[in-house]
Every structure is written in C-alpha cells, then in structure tokens.
Amino acid sequence: MKRPVLPSRRACLLSLCGTLLPAGLTHAGRQIEEPLSHSVRTALSAAVAAAPPEPWLSTAADQQAYAQWQAASSQRLARHKKNPTERQEFLQTLWYEARRAGLPLSLVLGVVQVESAFRKYAISSAGARGYMQVMPFWARLIGDGDDSRLFHMQTNLRFGCVILRHYLDRERGDIFMGLGRYNGSRGQAVYPQAVLAAQRGWVHPAD
C-alpha cells in the first residue's frame, strides 16, 4: 500500500517565523531529542511564539463548512469531553493550530486521540505532557523554557502541530515516517497505523 504523503509546508512554517496515564495510552514519551540547526530552531521558535488571532473565515461557504465541521466533531468528541463549551473551545483552537501548520484536522485529532485520549493533563511515564504529549525538552529548544505551559491547551496544540509539521517536512511529507518520528519509533508500523486508524473516524468534508 502506498504511504500517504503531505506536501511540504516548510516555507509556510518559516514565514510564520495531571494525570499519569498507564503505559500504552501515551506514545510520544519515546520521542527523541535531536540536534536542531540554528535556522530550524529559529523557525520553530517563531512558529510557537506568535500570538494567534481568532479564526477568520472570509466567505459564507467557509463559515458554513467550519460550522458543520464543529458540529460533527463536537458530537464525536462528546464522549471524551462532556462540557459543550470546553468542546467548542478545544475544537476552535485545534482548527486554528492545524490550519496554521498546514495539517489535516483529522490527522491532528487522530494524534490527540492516540496520544492522550483528549486528556488535557495527561503525562506519560517519560514526562510527555498534555493533549499531544509534547516532551518537556521542546520548551527548552524552541520555547521559553517553562515546560509547565505545555498543559495550556493552546500552547500544547501549537507545539504539537509545529513539531509534527517539522517531522513531516523532514520526511518529505511521508505521513507514515513523520508519525514515526513524532512517536520516536521511526520505521515501525504500530504507532502510525494507530493514528491513521483514529484519523479515519474524524474525516469530514471540511478537512
């Protein structure tokens, strides 16, 4: 089977210049800290630092598509998040951060489902944190060094999306290999297959 490939969004990225879960429910704790070149570190730092505006939709068609995606995704998310306001805020933030990083909404939702089961304060045995199980070393590499902020919803989703975009770019858009890097299990099938299976439950025409 041909692996899915996403087009590179490196140029876009550069321009943008607790609950302890049992083993097996979190995955990115095996993520490997790799040396970053100065240019890559600068680009990633800028990508996580910029303040986000409210999602802006210029046409009625875009607004309708977003509203339909929100409604469908909120219904699916209800078993994980009971509070409708919390669901709306989470989905709005995820929509913005996924779009900003050039990632499919369903892919990011699949990663969150596999990584944390949508638990904001999830912590892996290796110390990975939050919805997208971001390792604390990323706060030092491209953030302000305060890894406690990784429990903040928007900060966590932003870091997770920027890091995933970085790994996909390194793998020339190969989703299978990029997910492997995100998980720290590059070349192994278990994690990418789990995310891609979860992703299928979130696919929507607005994705």
Q: Could you describe the 3D structure shown?
A:
The chain has 207 residues and is mainly alpha-helical. The protein has a single domain (10-51, 60-200), classed as Lysozyme (Orthogonal Bundle), CATH 1.10.530. The chain has helices at residues 10-15, 38-49, 60-77, 84-101, 105-116, 137-142, 153-170, 175-183, 190-200, and strands at 19-20, 122-123. It has a two-stranded parallel ribbon. Helix 3 (60-77) packs across helix 4 (84-101), helix 7 packs across helix 8 (175-183) and helix 8 crosses helix 9 (190-200). The two termini are 23 Å apart. The model is unreliable at 8-26 (pLDDT under 50).
Which key terms come to mind for this protein?
Lysozyme; globular; 207 residues; mainly alpha; two-stranded parallel sheet; 2 strands
Helix/strand layout:
Blueprint: H1 10-15, E1 19-20, H2 38-49, H3 60-77, H4 84-101, H5 105-116, E2 122-123, H6 137-142, H7 153-170, H8 175-183, H9 190-200
Parallel strand pairs: 1-2
Helix pairs in contact: 3-4, 4-7, 5-9, 7-8, 8-9
Average pLDDT confidence is 84
Helix run count? 9
Care to count the β-strands?
Answer: 2
**Helix-strand category:** mainly alpha
What would CATH call the architecture? Orthogonal Bundle
How many domain regions? Answer: 1
Query: What does the main sheet amount to?
Result: 2 strands, parallel
User: What is the overall silhouette?
Assistant: globular
Give the termini separation: 23 Å
